[in-house]
């Protein structure tokens, strides 16, 4: 299983969030620069992948509603794509 750990400390703006996730998850450049693009890339994942989001409060302090949307999209993507699992961990 592929393990991906994302840190909310690097997600201070929506643009930062998308660039960081795109880089960490090795998505093609420019493919996940919107929530719709991120969703599309998550749906393409074909191998078991676990995503852990740490330091989410750092992200939520800066971009609360957008950050909440990201967390919801990660949760929903696990329902739609059986190869994905997600943990929200505050460390």
Q: So what's the overall shape?
A: globular
Strand content: 15-25%
Structural class, from helix and strand content?
alpha/beta
Number of helices: 4
Order of helices and strands: EHHEHHE
Query: In percent, how helical is the residue content?
Result: 40-55%
User: What can be said about the biggest beta sheet?
Assistant: 3 strands, parallel
The radius of gyration computed from the alpha-carbon positions, rounded to a whole number of angstroms, is: 12 Å
Average pLDDT over all residues: 95
Strand line-up of the largest beta sheet: 1-2-3
- Low-confidence sequence ranges: none
Instruction: Calculate the terminal CA-CA distance, rounded to whole Å.
Output: 22 Å
Total DSSP E strands:
3
Topology:
Blueprint (H helix, E strand, L loop, with lengths): L1 E6 L6 H11 L10 H10 L4 E6 L1 H7 L1 H17 L3 E5 L3
Parallel strand pairs: 1-2, 2-3
Helix pairs in contact: 2-4, 3-4
Any descriptors?
single chain, 91 residues, alpha/beta, three-stranded parallel sheet, 3 strands, 49% helix
What does this structure look like?
The protein has 91 residues and is α/β, with parallel strands linked by helices. It is 49% helix and 19% strand. The protein is built from four helices and three strands, in the order βααβααβ. It has helices at 14-24, 35-44, 56-62, 64-80, and strands at residues 2-7, 49-54, 84-88. Strands 1-2-3 form a three-stranded parallel beta sheet, covered by helices on one side. The longest helix has 17 residues, at 64-80. It starts with a strand and ends with a strand.
């Amino acid at each position: 299983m592929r393990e991906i750990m994302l840190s909310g400390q690097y997600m201070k703006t929506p643009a930062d969030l998308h660039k960081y996730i795109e880089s960490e998850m090795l998505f093609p450049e420019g493919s996940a620069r919107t929530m719709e693009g991120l969703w599309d890339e998550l749906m393409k994942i074909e191998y078991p992948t676990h995503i852990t989001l740490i330091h989410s409060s750092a992200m939520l302090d800066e971009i609360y509603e957008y950050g909440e949307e990201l967390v919801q999209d990660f949760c929903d993507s696990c329902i739609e794509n059986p190869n994905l699992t997600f943990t929200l961990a505050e460390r």
